[in-house]
Design a protein that fits this description.
This protein is mainly α. The chain has ten helices and no strands. The chain has a single domain, classed as Rhodopsin 7-helix transmembrane proteins (Rhopdopsin 7-helix transmembrane proteins), CATH 1.20.1070. The termini are far apart.
């Protein structure tokens, strides 16, 4: 690094220093993400014995989500520091395991209101389609990224429809005020928190955001956004479930 800086012209030197700083900060967010997810997992697992039995499975799933993410973030940080490239493959593997589990939470907390197993499979199938098509468009068939993005987006909006206006919303309305509030907060996570993922897809595929951003494949700033968003979404989901388990109205 020092030899490269000494031999570079001033403009190139500034670019290298900026790149080095961004890479350092990005690697740090992977580390913070690992620790935050692991701490959340420990909290959710330990609190299982202190919540009513009917909410223990939901809290267990919350702990599994953050634990799986913590393991992946550990490996993603190692990959990033070694290559300084975005760990797209590891990130999609993480999402393929954790996002369906986040969808399962909607089924678990509305099960008491009569949610059927069919709803569970709808949520899981939509989340898997969303992620698999996104992976194809971002890594395997980038020339047709728009097509894959449309398919992925359709699955995403189907999930959003279910939790805002569909079966999940209707069941939550009859499950009591505590469940209704929890589902509403989780629905906001899906609509707003999850929005960073399609945005990252658009920026990270050929043409970027209508050609303005180019490709974010080598842009560490997108990894920072993903890391912060992942932590907020996954830990936030679990905290909403925990708050529901502590409600006297639940």
């Amino acid at each position: 690094m020092v030899k490269q800086l000494l031999s570079a012209d001033p403009a190139k030197m500034l670019e290298m220093l900026t790149r080095y700083d961004l890479s350092t900060y990005t690697a740090f967010t992977f580390f913070v993400g690992t620790m935050a997810m692991m701490a959340a997992s420990a909290f959710f697992f330990l609190e299982m014995r202190n919540v009513p039995e009917k909410w223990r499975t939901s809290l267990l799933v919350s702990g599994l989500i953050t634990f799986i993410a913590a393991v992946h973030y550990y490996y993603m940080r190692e990959f990033y520091t070694a290559t300084e490239t975005s760990p797209t493959f590891f990130r999609y593997v993480d999402w393929l395991l954790t996002v369906p589990l986040m969808c399962v939470e909607f089924y678990l907390i509305t099960k008491k209101a009569g949610a059927k197993i069919g709803l569970l499979w709808k949520l899981i199938a939509a989340s898997v389609i969303m992620l698999v098509t996104g992976f194809f468009g971002e890594t395997i068939d980038r020339d047709n990224s728009v097509l894959w993005g449309v398919l992925s987006g359709a699955a995403y909006f189907y999930i959003a429809y279910l939790v805002w206006f569909g079966e999940v919303a209707k069941l939550a309305a009859t499950a009591g005020p505590a469940v209704a509030r929890a589902v509403k907060v989780l629905a906001w996570f899906v609509l707003v928190g999850w929005a960073i993922y399609p945005l990252g897809y658009i920026i990270g595929t050929p043409g970027g955001l209508f050609g303005v951003w180019g490709s974010a494949a080598g842009n560490p700033l997108m990894d920072v956004v993903y890391n912060i968003g992942d932590a907020v979404n996954k830990i936030g989901f679990g905290l909403v479930i925990y708050a529901l388990s502590q409600s006297k109205e639940a």
